[in-house]
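writing this on my phone so excuse typos. first protein, seq and then structure
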Amino acid sequence: MPRRPKCRRVAYEPPITSFVPGGNGDEIEYVTLKVEEFEAIRLKDHLNLEQEEAAALMDVSRPTYQRILTEARRKIAEALIMGKAISIEGGNYCLGKGYCRRQKRRLQKHETCPAQESSIAITNSRGNIALDKIAICASGSSSSSTIDERFGRCPFFVIWDADQRNYTAVKNTGLDDAQGAGTAVTQALLNHGVGTVITRRIGPKAFAVLNQAGIKVYAAQSGDTVETALQQYLDGKLDELKQANN
């Protein structure tokens, strides 16, 4: 009996799941791109990550990631050259936070999926207290400081507490960490009751950790101050990020 494929972690299910070529009056054939194949293309060819980093984000080995990527590229090439449509659906993938498509579809009740559970140790020490504060990545410790360009490497997080109507500046203790800054920063933000982050740019690793922790991320404009970015967020003028943008 062949071994069942391991679940592959993906950041999100693609919002657009069909691409149809124009100028073809005949009946169109479809090529089916699996969701994990779409993710492999996104990480390598869109975000330009190294293969080792992309494989780690999908929780697979480098050879497995290479096979997924090669098959995805083959299908896309077939669609482009043969004039076929692309449908993105199916596969063996997990979104984390309790959702495993493969387990829901095929696995028995006594079986588990390692990728379904969090692979990063993050805990909410605040128990049932709502995570409703807003953290803005800042170059300084005041509301007049400008937005810093980097999430994990910003000098300060200026945190807005709507209930108390005040700002609190928290120094980024992971600023000089060689690696893993995103995980440490996320844990610190959770401990301060942060549920929303406003930043200029964020990488795929840090975005995955924040997403896993349930913290929403919004993109600010370059050069804005903390106070301006917060007001734009409160006015509904900032876009929520659905993926990393750096």
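second protein below, same order as before
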Amino acid sequence: MWLIPKRVPFLKKSKAEQIVYGFHAVREALSLWAPTQEDELYLARRDEGRLKGLLQKFKKHKGTIKHMSYAQLTDLCQSENHQGIVLVRKSPLEVPKLTKQSLFEERNSLIYVGLERVQDPRNLGAALRSSLALGVAGIILTIHGTAPYSASVLKSSATAMLKLPVLRISSMASFLQELKDKNPSFYIIGADLEGVPLRKDLVEEWQSQSRPLLLVFGCEEGMADLTKKRCDILVKIPLNEKVESYNLSVACALLLYEIQRNKLLIL
């Protein structure tokens, strides 16, 4: 007998609740969050072998564990990619914050990524994952037109969204102008099909001056025209003529990797 009905009413009780699904996402979330007595863990499997450590930690903190069918979990998290495990946390996401002031005062040669109007949550999550893997210090997201942080973004990012400091802004173009005014040491690179190929000398120029770098990406339609104008330079990735463009998260990973690779070659 299942312990809760197919339709799960608590999903609509509070906006503060956060759903995390998928084995690795839940495991990583619980390594970052100490579960509380209010948190709930839903399982669609009776074989709990690889879940042993995770369940022990959850039980230690007296969280509630319930069993459901795969169909019920799909209904709960609105995705079939839950792998038979869903965590419902009864408090808001704990996401590291990035502040404007810290960027205005930044003088180290760190890399930041700006994402303008990225609507696809899986694309956003994958870009966050690549950013964390390739040493990005923080993320700048536009509020309007960008997918909200959600269970889908969390899973796609392999929980990178819980580790990367984020700053939310209303307009990327306005923010870039403000950043230029307050901290002209920032080197702002925009990713655009009309840009020049990313060359070693561009990375060398940035690295030799020990300047912080902001790499800006637009949505599937590209960056807004004013955002492009406020970048110091636009760069592109070589592309086969049979393909119109790269997926955003792929472009993000390729450019970040190329920057880091050339940085190592320079050193």
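The mean pLDDT is 84. thats all i got for now
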